[in-house]
Amino acid sequence: MPRKRSIKARCPICKKEVKKSDSEFPFCSERCRIVDLGKWASGAYVISSPVQDTSEDAPEDDKSKQNR
Ligand SMILES: [Zn+2]
């Protein structure tokens, strides 16, 4: 039975092993962290925000329903 469980992770950028205690976890280094950030910035993970003009007036039918 293993006494210690050494959880090893891999840097998502360069696939190098990273310790969980590492300050840059889950990245092996600051450089890889910045590379990952760069992916977001360059639009690899861009969340499209459709521009919709929803300036419709909501119909107010509630007033007529209150009429008992
Ligand atoms: Zn790395």
Can you tell me about this structure?
This protein has 68 residues and is an alpha+beta fold. The chain has a domain at 7-44: Erythroid Transcription Factor GATA-1, subunit A (Erythroid Transcription Factor GATA-1, Chain A, 2-Layer Sandwich). 25% of the residues lie in helices and 9% in strands. The chain is built from 2 helices and 2 strands; from the N terminus they run ββαα. It has a two-stranded antiparallel sheet. A hairpin with a 6-residue loop joins β1 and β2. The longest helix is centred in the middle third of the chain and has 13 residues, at 30-42. It is elongated, with a radius of gyration of 26 Å. 6% of the residues are buried. The model has no long low-confidence stretch (mean pLDDT 79).
Summarize the structure.
The chain is α+β, with helices and mostly antiparallel strands and 68 residues long. It contains two helices and two strands; from the N terminus they run ββαα. A two-stranded antiparallel sheet has the order 1-2.
Key terms for this structure?
alpha+beta, two-stranded antiparallel sheet, 2 helices, Erythroid Transcription Factor GATA-1, Chain A, elongated, binds zinc ion, single chain, 68 residues
